[in-house]
């Protein structure tokens, strides 16, 4: 088994770890009915449409 010859510095360790800690903004698509920005493959909470069909009745209309 390989054994490190020298101690890994804090800077090198944190640089390596920081690559995987990046925050990513969620991908949003425009609702085809009302134009609201929603997550892909989800029902629009504003109008209740999914793929051109009324799936739910939103609370604002009820």
TrEMBL record:
This is Large ribosomal subunit protein bL32. The gene is rpmF. It comes from Gracilinema caldarium. The keyword Ribonucleoprotein applies. It comes from the Bacteria. InterPro entries: Ribosomal_bL32, Ribosomal_bL32_bact, Ribosomal_zn-bd. Keywords: Ribonucleoprotein, Ribosomal protein. GO terms for biological process: translation. GO terms for cellular component: large ribosomal subunit. The keyword Ribonucleoprotein applies. Belongs to the bacterial ribosomal protein bL32 family.
